[in-house]
Amino acid sequence: MEGCYLLWPYPSFPLMERCKLDFCCYKLMTFILCKKNMNNLVLSLAPKFGKLQNLILRQDKPQLSDHAVETIASYCHDLQVLDLSKSFKLSDLSLYALAHGCHDLKRLNISGCTAFSDTALAYLASYCRKLKFLNLCGCVKAASDTALQAIGQYCNHLQSVNLGWCENVTDVGVMSLAYGCPDLRTLDLCGCVLITDDSVIALANMCPHLRSLGLYYCQNITDRAMYSLAHSCIKNKPTKWGTGKGKNDDDGLRTLNISQCTALTPPAVQAVCDSFPALHTCSGRHSLIMSGCLNLMSVHCACAVQAHRASTAFPHSAH
């Protein structure tokens, strides 16, 4: 039964056809609850699945209570993946319970949980040190520099962090992540309006595996940050003696969102585009996202330039 999925209740997927699961099975690995009566289902079923590893709680409307999360933490000590997104009714009690009961958490999604405080999040980080993926999008109160300092100190295996629209985050918090989480690969800072070039420079210097960076509406970002990213590629480029930081040719930025970063100029952004071949501006492959930056219209990836040359040369070759 390991690795099976239970969807309950889920009208589009008949229970017996999807998993044929005996409710007495204690090796259930993935449990997805949705639709109605979620709170009562969690309270009644969590004690029966002590080996649960993945729990995704999808809600049409906020239902989940702290008591339900406390029950999960009390019985499901092997939990590794937990999605509590949009659980508006939850308070810090839930985070404290998870900190004590679920030390093996690797993926935690609490996006939209606006009632959590930074004190509770910092406390969770001190106990759940195996975290690799953390979604804090919209957690304005929880995602503060204080919490990020704790995360950088304790959660050194983090690979992906979403801080979208966490408007209280400053360079202090982002730099704590950069210095404490060297394996960081995906970081969404969209809407973090207080950060400056210092955050990007720290990421460029300390996170050699960074693949995706979201800077949408970070209007304090200037060319200095872009040149730092471009230089990080050159600095970490493999040499004939080996790779300086263990990087391969395929490493480096693959997605960069600088939409609404209106202080940037074409030469600086072009330098980043030239340094990371996986960044594309060509049709259908947009991974360098620059919407709202009309001054960057001249920035193009290599294949976009080649395609343009081919299209302009074709009519001449026909004569």
Automatic annotation (TrEMBL):
Residue ranges annotated for the F-box/LRR-repeat protein 15-like leucin rich repeat domain, each copy included: 52-230
A Pfam family it matches: DUF7885
GO cellular component entries: SCF ubiquitin ligase complex
Entry-linked InterPro entries: FBXL15_LRR, Leu-rich_rpt_Cys-con_subtyp, LRR_dom_sf
UniProt GO BP: SCF-dependent proteasomal ubiquitin-dependent protein catabolic process
Name this polypeptide is given: F-box protein SKP2A isoform X2
Species per Swiss-Prot/TrEMBL record: Cucumis melo
